[in-house]
Amino acid sequence: MASTSFVLFAAFVGLTAAQYEGWEPTQVSAAMCYWEAPRAAVIRDTLWLDGGDLTWTQKMSNGENELSSRNNPLGLMYSFNFSKPFDTKTNLTTLIGTTSKAPGGAGLVGSYSPNMIDGALLYNDAEFYLYGGTLLAEIKGTEAPDADKVVFHREYQYGVEKPGFQEGTDRQSFPGGITQFVAHGAAVSAPSENKAWYIGGMRSPIWGEIYKIYQNDTHIANSTSSTLITLDMTKQLSETFSNETLQVTPRANPSAVWVPVGEKGILVMVGGVTFPEFTTNGLRTSANSQDSEKDSPEFMKTIDIYDIAGKQWYQQKTENGPGALTRGCAVLATAQDRSSFNLYYYGGYTGVDATSGFSDAVWVLSMPSFQWIKLNDGTDNHARAGHQCVMPYPDQMIVVGGYAAMAGDGNPPCVPNFFHTFNVSSGEWQDSYSPSKWSNYTVPTAVQSKIGGNAQGSATATTPVVSGWADPSLSAVFAAEYTTKINTWYPYTEAKETDRPIVDDPGNGNNGGGGGTPKWVAPVLGVVLGLVFITGILVGFCLWRRRKVLRRGNGTATATDDNGSRIISWIRGQPSEPAKAPTVTTEETPSTLDMAEVRTPPPAPAASPAPVVAHEMADDHIAELPDTSPRAELHGVGLTPVEIINKHTHFGTGNGSNPGTTHQSSYYASVSSNENASSLSRSSGVLGFQTRAQSPEPGPPSPPVSHSTPAGRHDSDVSGLSDNETRHLRHISQATVSSASSGGEQEVSGAQQGARGVPTTVPEMPTPGIPETPTPGHPSPLSPPTGASDGEDYISARMLPVSPAGTGTLRRSMFHESEDDLGSKK
C-alpha cells in the first residue's frame, strides 16, 4: 500500500511540471487564468508569492478549454526574480520558480502549512513569515493547521554569524494571545526596521479556523478583528510576535504602505469595506450592503496613520478620493528630495457585489498635502481585484494576478496581462518589463499640478490642503527626517531566457503555460544546420585540394610531364646569389682510368665577403678544343617524384635533426670514356631542405683506393696520354672538376643546419692518391643546387666570388698547363 501511494504521488508530481499541479493525460497546454488573493513578499531581488486561489485554463487535445484549481496540495511557493524580462505574451511558467513548504522540502504538505487564501507574507530583506488567511473548504479526514504555530522561510542570514544557520522552511510557536486564524487584513513590511505588521481584518465568531466555504457560519470570517499584529525580526532566530488593540475602525482588505518619515517611519492605511461579499460563505453578495456602502467610502476620505516610534494613531482628512474600494493594492513612490511621498492605489472593487464595481484606475494620494489625484482611468476589461503590487524599481510597479467581475453564477473570466507593469513616473501602462530599463522616480505632471515643484521634487504644498494638520504632533512626525539606511538591491542583471516553451493563451489574455513546441527549437536548429552545412563545404574543399595535390605528385602524369617537372625543380634549386663556379669537363681521347675525385675541404670560418676574382686564361695563350668534342649535357636519370617531394617541398620526410631517408647518390664529375661527354650525377639537386650552415662535418679520411673500378663508373684512358698532352688538358681546365661524397645518411645537428635544411657542403669520400689538403689556388668543386632561396636559371647562374688562396672553400683547379705543354718555346 505504501509503495502504491508513493508511485501515485511521484506520477502526480511529474504531471505538475508545467502547470505546477493537476496536469491531465489529454491536456496539451495550460495558462494561468486568475489568481484570487495571493500574498506577496519582496526579498532583495526576488518576488515571493504564496497561497491564493490559482486557477488554470487547460487546453485539451479535443480543442476544449477547462478550468482547473487543485488548491496547491504540494504546498508550493512561487518566486519571480526581477532579472527576468517579460511582456504581455510571455509564458509565465518560464518566469516562476517553485519551492515546497512541506517538511523536508517535498511531498504533500497536509496540515503543516495548507494553502491559504488571503493572509500575508511579513518580511524583511532575508526572510518572511506566512501569517493568516482563509482555508478554501473543509476536507473530510484532514485536520486544520495549528492555531498557535506559524511557518517561516529563511533565505539569508543577518546579524551575528550563525554557524548552524540553515535556509529553508520551518515553524515556530506564537506567544499567548496570538492566533493565525485572521484574514483580510492589511499587510505592510519595513525591511530597514526589520519589522512587519498585519492590521485588522476579519475572523470567525469563535476565533477558530476559517474557511471560504463552510457548512455553517461558525468558521466563516464574518467578524472584524481589532488586532494590530507586529512581527519584530531585529534578531534573527529570536523573532517575536506581539499584539495590540487596533485604535481605528477595523475592516476587510484595506491597503497600507510604510512611509520613511519620523524616527522609525509611519504606516498609512487606505480603503477597505465593512461588509464584504467574499465573507458570506459563497453567496457573492454583501450581508449588509447598505451599511457597507455608507461606511466604506469614509476609509478613502479619512486616512489612518500610525507612528511606529510613538505607537500613536492619527487621522488626516482629504477629499475627492476614489470612493469605497477593497482588495486593491498600494505602493509608495518618494520624490528624490523627499518633499513629497506619493501613495499609488490600483484596482479593487466596491466589495458588495462580485459581478460589478471593479476598477482599473490608478490613484495617487500625495503626502503631506494629502490630495487625491486620478492618474490613469484604465479600461473596464482590464479591471481586477484581489491582486498584488510590488516595485522592482523606483519608477515601476508590477501587478500580479487578481480576478475580474463574475458573470452570473459561473467562474470569473481570465484576467488579461497576468503580469503587467505600470510606470509610476509617466502614469502609463507598459507592454513589457526589462531589468535593463529603469530610472529614478520623477513626480508625474498631473501630481505636480496639485502639489507644485518639479519632477525631482521641490513640492510647495507641504501641509494638508483640506483642513490643515489634524494634530500638530503629526506635523512634527512628517517634519522629522528618517535617517536609517534603506537598502536597495537594484539594478538587476538581465537573465537569459529559460528553455520552457511559450504557448499562446487559449482564452483571454496571454498568460502562458506549458506544452507545444519550444520557441528555442527553430533558432537552435537553424544554427546547428548552418554549422553542419558550412563544415561540409570546408571538409569537401580540403579533400578536393588534397586530392589535387596528390595527383600532381603521384606518378600518374606522363613521362614528359615528369621530366619537365624534374628539370624545373632542379633549376629552381639554383641559388639566387653567386655560389660556385660552373664545372666544365672535356676529353679528347678515350681514357682508361677515372679522373681522381677532389675532396671538398671543411668550410672556412665566417669572414667578410671576398672580392670577386675572375679566372681567365692569359691573353698570350691559345687554347681550343678539337672539332670532335661532343656537347656537354646532363647525365643520368632526372629526379624521381619521391626525391622532388623530399628535397623541394615541406612534405619531405626529413627534418632538422633527421634528414630525409632518401639516399643521395655519389656526385661525380668525370670524363666518361664510354660517352665522350661531360657528366653530372642525376642526384645533383638539392639535398633535402638543408642550408649551408647545416652541412655535416667532413667524414674521416677515406681508406686507400681500391684497384677495382667503382660500380657504375668507366675506366679512364688519361694514363695512356703523354705528359705533354696531360699537362695540356690540365691547362685547358680552368673551371672546376668536382666530386661528391657518397650519398649515405648522415646525422646533422641543429647547429650545423640553416633555415631550410640545405647542407653547406656536400660530404665526400677522399680519393686515394690525391692529397686531402688542397693546393693553393685550387678551385672549389661544383655544389649541387640548393633550396635555400629561389635560384636563377641554369644558363645565367653567376660566378661565385673567389676568396684568396687558402682562405676559403673556393679553389682553382688542380690542373695546370705550362707554355711547354702548348708547344711554345721560350
What features would you describe in this structure?
The chain has a 4-stranded antiparallel β-sheet with strand order 2-3-6-8, with no helix packed on it. Strands 9-10-12-13 form a 4-stranded antiparallel β-sheet, with no helix packed on it. A 4-stranded antiparallel β-sheet has the order 14-15-19-20, with no helix packed on it. Among the domains are: 1-115 and 500-515, no CATH class; 555-826, no CATH class. By secondary structure, the protein is of the alpha+beta class.
Kindly estimate the percentage of residues that lie in beta strands according to DSSP.
15-25%
**Residue windows where pLDDT falls under 50 for at least 5 positions:** 1-17, 499-516, 555-560, 576-601, 604-610, 654-720, 731-784, 786-809
Helical content stands at 10-25%
Largest sheet: 4 strands, antiparallel
How widely separated are the two ends? 137 Å
In the sheet with the most strands, the strands line up as 2-3-6-8
| Total count of helical runs of at least 4 residues | 9
Estimated structural class: alpha+beta
Mean model confidence by pLDDT = 76
Radius of gyration: 52 Å
Q: How would you sum up the global shape? A: elongated
Strand elements, count: 33
Biased composition (Basic and acidic residues): 814-826
Biased composition (Pro residues): 765-784
Signal peptide: 1-18
InterPro entries: Kelch-typ_b-propeller
